Amino acid sequence: MRLDKYLANAGIGSRSEVKNMIKKKRITVEGEIVTDPKSRVSPDDGVLLDGGPVVLEEEIYIMLNKPTGVISSTEKGPTPTVIDLIDHPQKDQLFPVGRLDKDTTGLLLITNDGKLAHELLSPRSKIGKTYVAQLESEVTEDDISQLEAGIPLKDFTTAPAAAEKLSSHAVELTITEGKFHQVKRMFHYLGNEVTALHRIGFGDLMLDEHLTAGSHRRLRENEIKLIKKV
User: Is 101 one of the annotated active-site residues of the chain?
Assistant: First the structure.
């Protein structure tokens, strides 16, 4: 990585500001003053600013409680994205693991770890995604039985889900696939409509109940271990 990009990504200043720092000989790499912004460095190199270490995070794991109205994308556009909600100096390297619909809320993992994201999203991993669905009509025990047996949708039959009736109009549902609008389509097949959908779990990682809509925090060490045991 270029030295100026490394410094900017580490959050010590804008690209123009760090170039000025380099020009003023405030940056050393492995004990040597470096004055070329294009010099190549890595997180393992001893990069110092005025004698103090400049640390770039190699692996970033963030839990976001996604609100409605934002999309699970990294592309800039007229609609706010989940990355717009993240306050991190390396946010341009971050992306969501999977997607939640614009009107779906809850747990979304944000990272820069492409390898882990691929493993978590691979159909072979069969990672459970747990949602609480609020329904327009009353849920029956037969509905629960059908969800647990698998729903024959137009393009595929869903794998058996874990379903628990929370109230007359609410169900906690865990699915191992993640097809487009899958939960909504499953209930539509049952003659019901989802009025609100909130994800509370991704594998063994559970949404922090103290995390308000639109807020985020870094994963704790024990939570990182949970998502890495794919």
Answer: yes
Cα distance between residue 22 and residue 198, in whole Å: 47
CA-to-CA distance for 42 and 221, rounded, in angstroms?
24
DSSP 138-165: PPPHHHHHHHHH--B-SS-BPPP-EEEE
- H-run or E-run covering 32: strand 32-33
Nearest alpha carbon to residue 217 among 229, 228, 225, 209: 209
The CB density around residue 55, as the number of other CB atoms within 10 Å, is: 10
Tracing tokens 């995390």 back to the chain, one arrives at 211
Burial class (CB in 10 A: 0-12, 13-18, 19+), 25: exposed
Tell me the C-alpha distance between 36 and 58, whole Å. 23
Q: How far apart are CA 50 and CA 117, in angstroms?
A: 36
- E-assigned strand segments in 72-223: 95-96, 105-111, 129-135, 162-167, 170-175, 194-202, 205-206, 216-218
Per annotation, catalytic residue among 101, 142, 155, 208: 101
pTM equals 0.83
SS3 for 53?
strand
Instruction: Give the pLDDT means over successive 10-residue stretches in the chain (230 positions).
Output: 88 89 95 94 88 87 97 92 91 93 97 95 94 98 98 96 98 95 97 98 97 97 92
The amino acid present at 210, given as its one-letter code, is H
